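Supplementary Methods, section 5.1.

A reviewer requested that the exact input to the structure prediction be made available. We therefore reproduce it here, unchanged from the version used in the analyses.
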Amino acid sequence: MLTPITTHRDIAVFRQGRRYLTIAADTLGAIGEKPADHLCAPPELGGRLTARVCLIETLAVGATPVALTALTCNEHEPTGMRLLAGIRAELAEAGLADLPLGGSSEDNMPTSMTALGITLLGACAAPAWRRARPGDGVYLAGLPYVGPEVIAHLDELLTPARTRDIRALPMAGDLLPCGSRGIGWELRVLEREIGLPVQLAAAIAPALLTASAGPATCAVVTSGEAFTLDDMPVMRLGTVSEGAP
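The structure derived from this sequence is encoded token-by-token as follows.
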């Protein structure tokens, strides 16, 4: 029997006996090499980054990916195969080359815009979340990028490997990937998840909080200690406070 667990995160969580199941999902649209695409980019890259979002959301709560489904809203050959090639490359880079992968494509109708949907099933003994306490620092790992900025900063983005490394740090409390709704949105999610307010640092520019972080290019991290990373920029956004959010 599955019991849904209420969360404000972009991931569905269920209790099943002594373990938990997670379902992460993401979509891609109008990014590719078809005539009506808004941003011209190789389908392989679109497949990689869409899979990456689901992997990051899953790993951020301490779950292990179990199976992935890719729904290609285009013909199987060549667009579907190129999207799948990107997905498989991302899985391999994350150490998940053997992850079961299923899906479907649209071969009955011609399509003029690239589109893809991915769901990822995960499992864990217990979610790694809701750990922040009053006085903990709230940090931003990485920077928000969207559209052409993502392509220009590919080596600087949050990745599944980096997410796994952050999650494994003893000092890391809550880890919330940021996406198209921006950093400010994830800070509000954090507040609702832990039931405590976040006091922002005076130097934080409002534009930073509202900027889209595209395909999970950065993440909010809480820590009871000074938090730094060797391979990503980190800035302190504020502090977890007492009281109600």
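The chain has a mean pLDDT of 97. These observations are discussed further in the main text.
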